[in-house]
Design brief:
By secondary structure, this protein is an alpha+beta fold. It has one domain (about 10-95): Glutaredoxin (3-Layer(aba) Sandwich). Helices cover about 25% and strands about 30% of the residues. The chain has helices spanning about 30-35, 50-55, 80-90; strands at about 10-15, 40-45, 60-65, 70-75. A 4-stranded mixed β-sheet has the order 2-1-3-4. The protein is globular, with a radius of gyration of 14 Å.
Length: about 100
Amino acid sequence: MKEIKEEYKLIEFYANWCVSCHIPEITTASIEKKNENLNIQRIDIDSNPDLTLQFGVRSIPALTLLRGETEIWRYSGLISESELVSVLAKHLNNK
């Protein structure tokens, strides 16, 4: 029997005018390579106000991790790549 993998989605909320959102703390491409069942999406809050409201984003940058349609982790502010990798390893069971 084939193992069914859950799909995970990491949503990064940002804005073009947000200085903190452009600090290269996180290399999402390298994170996505390490976690093949992780889909990373960047959402511009100015272009997507309804989605921003739906997720209750009040400050940026903000990260939301979903398993399927269920939110399992959220973070607002800057986070280092090593911290994010650690969080993802915990939630995605990657060791």
